Amino acid sequence: MSNYKRGTRFLYAAQTNTLGTWTFQYRVFDPEGGQGSAVKTVTLRIVPVAVDFTYQVRTGVNEARIDLKNQPGMAPTNFSGTVKLVDGAFPSCVSDPGGQEYHNGIIKIRTTNKKAGTCTMRYQLASPSDPAVISEVKTI
Predict the structure, then answer these.
(1) pLDDT tens by residue, 90-116
(2) Which end of the chain, N or C, is less packed with Cβ atoms under 10 Å?
(3) Around 90, how many Cα atoms within 13 Å sit in the side-chain half-sphere?
(4) CA 113, CA 56: separation in Å to the nearest integer?
């Protein structure tokens, strides 16, 4: 944290690509450095950002592992939280039931006897350290 402009604002730069709840404390002083205010606490929740993308099912591949950390813009590179598939059931392109949680930003699906094509499912990212830190629901 640093003083953005003396007497008016603070600038806080959270560590890049890091999710969770962050807390810091500060105190304000008058221009002469005396008469400090009470200590105040600021709490920030850095939420993972889920984005839509398309997954292509390949003929002859019975199981797929989608690592969201390796998909541009999908999950922070150090993401170790859960990925929850939020639909009650997968669409016809996948034979695994929905509603499951997967760890470390990885989704595993079974595509046994499915034709090649685009597969769509909805998911949400959640922080490993704070269950209140979750992303919006997006579509794969």
Answers:
(1) 555 665 544 566 666 777 777 666 677
(2) N
(3) 20
(4) 15
* Residue 127 half-sphere exposure toward CB, CA atoms < 13 A: 17
Locate tokens 């993308």: which residue?
53
Instruction: Compute CA distances 41 → 23, 28, 38, 70, 97, whole Å.
Output: 7, 12, 10, 36, 44
For residue 69, report the phi and psi dihedrals to the nearest 5 degrees: -70, -25
Does the pLDDT at position 38 exceed 80? Answer: yes
* Mean per-residue pLDDT, 66-81: 67
Q: Do 41 and 129 form a contact (C-beta atoms < 8 A)? A: no
User: CA nearest 96: which of 114, 79, 72?
Assistant: 114
Q: Is the dihedral of CA 136, 124, 139, 18 positive or negative?
A: positive
- In whole angstroms, give the CA distance from residue 124 to residue 25: 31
* 2 exposure class (CB count in 10 Å sphere: 0-12, 13-18, 19+): exposed
d(CA 9, CA 93): 52
Residue 104: phi and psi, rounded to 5, are 60, 30
